[in-house]
């Protein structure tokens, strides 16, 4: 290597003041079937890649815990007509192009 540079941005991480942890949201929310993941959620690391990774693992654990409830919810949904499903896919692909 002939040249290198280290870029430091002091504002790239937030400073967590004492007592602010209770304001960070948990991965499981009060909204049914709605989960959060990201470095801003409740976990042991500050806003970082490690925190985001840990939060993703915690969110997936909460989703697995809710699996039985999600299975029951899925049984309550009516079976979708294949023509409706096909039309929905066609619409989705046409809007992407």
Write the SSE topology.
Blueprint: H1 49-65, H2 67-76, H3 82-96
Measured by DSSP, the beta-strand proportion falls in under 5%
Unreliable parts:
none
Report the order of strands and helices.
HHH
Morphology call: flat
Structural class: mainly alpha
The span between the termini is: 42 Å
- State mean pLDDT (0 to 100 scale): 76
Number of helices: 3
Task: State the helical fraction.
Answer: 40-55%
The count of DSSP E runs of length 2 or more, i.e. the number of strands, is 0
**Rg calc:** 21 Å
Largest sheet: none
InterPro entries: Amino_oxidase, FAD/NAD-bd_sf, Zeta_carotene_desat/Oxidored
Domain Amine oxidase: 3-63
Protein name: Amine oxidase domain-containing protein
Organism: Riccia fluitans
What does this 3D model show about the protein?
With 97 residues, the protein is mainly α. The protein has helices at residues 49-65, 67-76, 82-96. The chain is flat and about 60 Å long. This is Amine oxidase domain-containing protein. It comes from Riccia fluitans. Pfam families: Amino_oxidase (PF01593). InterPro entries: Amino_oxidase (IPR002937), FAD/NAD-bd_sf (IPR036188), Zeta_carotene_desat/Oxidored (IPR050464). Residues 3-63 form the Amine oxidase domain.
Short description:
The chain is an all-alpha fold. The protein has helices at 49-65, 67-76, 82-96. It starts with 48 loop residues before the first helix and ends with a helix.
